[in-house]
Specification:
Order of helices and strands: HEEEHHHEHEHHEEHEHEEEHEHEHH
Number of strands: 13
Structural class: alpha/beta
Distance between the termini: 40 Å
Radius of gyration: 23 Å
Oligomer: single chain
Strand content: 15-25%
Number of helices: 13
Helix content: 25-40%
Length: 413
């Protein structure tokens, strides 16, 4: 384990111990420029953890291991961001699993989240108190100080093994895919799992071998140019049922090739951002598709195939860099311009945006002139009408900024 990872885990242990002594309730946010994890604390005790990278895939993998017979749909609508916990609790009530199984699932999820987050050099901690988290959690499914200490020790051991195997630059959330045929006998039957559809974590569980052993065995193939890694999209969340009609229902379901007017998607948790873009872009004949939750809205994005995407960096349900990387790894979006639109405008942010595959970068609030020029820059060839649009006069028109709605509580108390 590197010094950085050791420091992160030590700091985390100290912070969790402090929260336990104060019996605080809220969310301890672990964030880097490329990922965000959340530790949910109820009255000082750790109850669950999430990460924007493969949140559903991680939970499903743990459920498949410890309680595969659990019902994976909530029996009633629940206003909570912790649907995983609710499903486990529902399964206990329906006698589909016991407390030991439920706790094993949670322990596995927490371990993977901490393993992933502690690898980031630029990891930051931020505490958000939330009194709503004081209730609604079973003490039998919470983790005591001694249990948390054991989890941290386990994560530290995993990090040491990962570092010793010289895998510091490899993320186990990536999926290996062969680029050239390989003799199946040479990999002891592992070839069938190297299709790019399973992550290293997934393969580890399927063949019941430590993930570090699998990753270490694949490195020679990478060095020979026979194998590469790619990021997979997450599974849809079990809470995503029939989509209710929204203002986006008015967006025509034209294909990208037959569309006569540009369709611009705005991925931002704030409705104000989409409304501002509408005021700027509608006069030039653009339609704006508002996506406030990128995780739940991926189906909409895939369905409508927008010609250009404006993407926020900081959202409660996703990390903009990760969303950008996902779009770049998805074949249907590889050539779609992705413009970062954020209030977090620094040299570091711009560099990270380039590394994630962003096509352009604009700061909030969007300047009408700059916004129009960016759209014309990326879409004028596809939509020749944009070349004759009077950008100068349009850019001079004032844009009113709608007021933000009051935030909704994260969960019901």
């Amino acid at each position: 384990m590197t010094i950085t990872e050791c420091i992160h885990l030590k700091r985390l242990g100290e912070e969790l111990e402090r929260l336990s002594k104060n019996t605080d309730s809220g969310i301890l946010i672990l964030s880097s420029h490329t990922e965000e994890g959340r530790l949910y604390i109820s009255q000082g005790q750790l109850v669950y953890a999430t990460s924007h990278v493969h949140r559903v895939r991680r939970w499903s993998r743990a459920v498949d291991k410890y309680c595969p017979k659990i019902t994976r749909q909530l029996s009633a609508p629940v206003n909570t961001s912790l649907w995983e916990y609710q499903l486990l609790y529902q399964g206990i009530r329906q006698k589909e699993l016991d407390l030991t199984q439920a706790k094993a699932v949670i322990r596995r999820v927490i371990s993977e989240v901490l393993f992933s987050m502690s690898r980031h050099i630029d990891l930051n901690f931020h505490w958000e108190a939330d009194t709503a988290l004081k209730s609604g959690f079973s003490k039998h499914l919470s983790f005591s100080d001694s249990e948390v200490e054991k989890i941290l020790l386990q994560v530290a051991q995993m990090q040491t093994q990962w570092q010793t195997a010289h895998l510091s630059n490899l993320d186990p959330n990536l999926a290996p895919i062969l680029t050239k045929p390989v003799n199946p006998k040479a990999l002891s039957g592992l070839v069938k799992y190297l299709s790019g559809e399973l992550t290293l974590w997934d393969i580890s569980q399927k063949i019941q071998k430590p993930v570090v052993s699998i990753a270490r065995g694949l490195i020679p193939l990478v060095q020979k140019g026979l194998l590469k890694f790619r990021m997979l999209p997450d599974f849809p969340a079990p809470t995503e049922c029939v989509r209710e009609p929204t203002e986006n229902s008015t967006v025509k379901s034209e294909t990208s090739s037959t569309r006569q007017h540009p369709l611009i998607a705005c991925i931002d948790d704030s409705p104000v951002a989409a409304e501002t873009l509408k005021q700027i872009l509608t006069p030039m004949g653009c339609q704006v598709l508002s996506i406030q939750n990128p995780v739940k809205g991926l189906a909409q994005i895939a369905e409508h195939k927008p010609d250009l995407i404006f993407l926020d960096l900081v959202m409660p349900n996703a990390n903009g860099y990760i969303v950008c990387k996902f779009l770049r790894n998805a074949p249907i979006f590889q050539d779609t311009p992705v413009v970062i639109l954020t209030s977090r405008d620094t040299v570091v942010d711009r560099n990270y945006a380039k590394l994630a595959g962003a096509s352009d970068f604009l700061s909030k609030p969007p300047d009408p002139g700059e916004t129009l020029q960016v759209v014309r820059k990326h879409l004028a060839q596809k939509f020749p009408r944009l070349r004759t649009y009077n950008f100068r006069s349009a850019a001079k028109k004032p844009v009113s900024t709608p007021s933000e709605p009051s935030p909704k509580p994260m969960i019901n108390s």
